[in-house]
Amino acid sequence: MAPAKVVYDCVTCGACCTNPDENREIDYVDYVEIEVSDPILKKPDLVRRLVVLDDDLLPHMRLDRHQRCVALKGRLGRQVACSIYHDRPSGCRSFTAGSKRCKQYRRERGIDA
Ligand code: SF4
Ligand code: SF4
């Protein structure tokens, strides 16, 4: 029997909203970069709750203890949502479902075998 076709459905995934293994291995947590022009930086409430600065004072999304972006809601691999979808950083907007990195991150989080 042919293997089931993988559907790269972001609302049942969320893998790229977590720190990938290559970063975890070197304790690198500044994963979700924020550009200075990204709209989230113009919203003080969101900045206070969700943004951290790295050693070079560049803004990133805060990660929780499971290394998930704190804006991600729901259960990984089941049902997820970005709680700041319209204000998400440009790096999140440009990440392509079905790309090589998408497939890698899904595998790392156990979403695909
Ligand atoms: S890893 Fe791929 S399928 Fe999963 S949320 Fe990111 S872009 Fe979507
Ligand atoms: S801001 Fe939203 S889309 Fe970007 S990593 Fe966080 S939860 Fe995912």
If you had to describe this structure to a student in words, what would you say it looks like?
With 113 residues, this protein is of the alpha+beta class. It has one domain. 22% of the residues lie in helices and 12% in strands. The structure holds iron/sulfur cluster (2 copies). One iron/sulfur cluster (SF4) binds next to helix 4.
Main sheet: strand order: 1-2
Major beta-sheet overview: 2 strands, antiparallel
> Using only CA atoms, what is the Rg?
15 Å
Strand proportion:
5-15%
Structure summary, number of beta strands: 4
What is the ordering of alpha helices and beta strands?
HHEEEEHH
Shape verdict: globular
Number of domains: 1
For the termini, the CA-CA separation is 17 Å
Mean pLDDT: 95
SSE blueprint and pairings:
Layout: H1 21-24, H2 44-50, E1 51-53, E2 59-61, E3 72-75, E4 79-82, H3 90-94, H4 100-108
Antiparallel strand pairs: 1-2, 3-4
One iron/sulfur cluster binds at residues 8, 10, 13-16, 95, 97, 102, 105-106.
Short description:
The protein has 113 residues and is of the alpha+beta class.
Comma- or semicolon-separated keywords:
113 residues; alpha+beta; two-stranded antiparallel sheet; 4 strands
